[in-house]
Amino acid sequence: MADGVDAGPGIEIIDTLLGGQTGMTAAYLIEEGGPTLVETGAQTSAQTLIAALTDRGIGPNDLRQVILTHIHLDHCGGVGDIAQAFPSARVVVHRRGARHLADPTRLVESSIAVYGALAPLYGRLTPVPAERIDAVEEGARIDLGAGRTLDVIDAPGHARHQMALVDAAHGVVFTGDALGVRFPGSEVYPAIPPPDFDLDMALTTLRRIAERQPTRLLLPHFGPVDAPQEAVATAGERQRILAEAALAGWEAGGEEGVWDEVSRRLPMEAVVTDEPGRERWRAVLWADNNPPGLIEWIKGREARAAEGART
Ligand SMILES: [Zn+2]
Hints:
The protein has helices at about 45-55, 75, 80-85, 100, 105-115, 120, 200-210, 230-265, 270, 275-285, 290-310; strands spanning about 5-10, 10-15, 25-30, 35-40, 65, 90-95, 135, 140-145, 150-155, 165, 170-175, 215-220, 225. It has about 300 residues and is an alpha/beta fold. The strands form two sheets. The chain has a seven-stranded mixed beta sheet with strand order 1-2-3-4-5-6-7. A six-stranded mixed beta sheet has the order 8-9-10-11-12-13. The chain is globular. Zinc ion binds near residues 177, 220 and 221.
């Protein structure tokens, strides 16, 4: 989907061009009521995004707020730079992520560990002044102005600090990475990086998104999905297959077994059959983060089971 295309009633998609590539990371702009931005993309995308907002006539003091679905750097890394460029904007984030925007030291360190050699693709995160951060959680209603609102639902599974945003009046849900990644013209495939993945939470989140009966989902990677119930079901099924593969692999051969069984049962290439989609996955190596994410999940389960056995 091209930059600037209408993504829903009064919602515009801005391609934040991660790594200079189209169709990787989206921000969404809602102009009605005073401009609100959902997601910023990575810090390396900040200048692209500032230029896109400036092109639309949004001056330094015009941006009302920036809402982040979660605090992975491909969604939030640009927020400090955007906050500096638009000094009136509030920054809205889940309660579990708020302190990491004010002091990103640990977040950046752990992100670099996950992204490895590709960390420079994302950049880092400029701190956001604490007094400009609005921490929200389940049940919050975010005022966009002009009578327009977004309802927050906690959306853990992909990350504990993830929230989905429901535009109930227009049937739209901003999902964060709850479904995984579906590049333009391609199929949805799970994105379950360490350290937070949890299958039960992920499936509950998908069920709760579906319960809102949306007519359109807006994915950060990338763009609108117009058959939400089907997409949610497919996304859940694929996450379940990967989780089951990981459990079987762990049983058979530990960490190496997880890698083997994931690549045997449902590798990215089995789902993403179009070459542009595969090229996007390879450019960011996100599929390679899935086995480590699954291993962390299994280790966490075992630690909790051992803890439970002792008490
Ligand atoms: Zn993401």
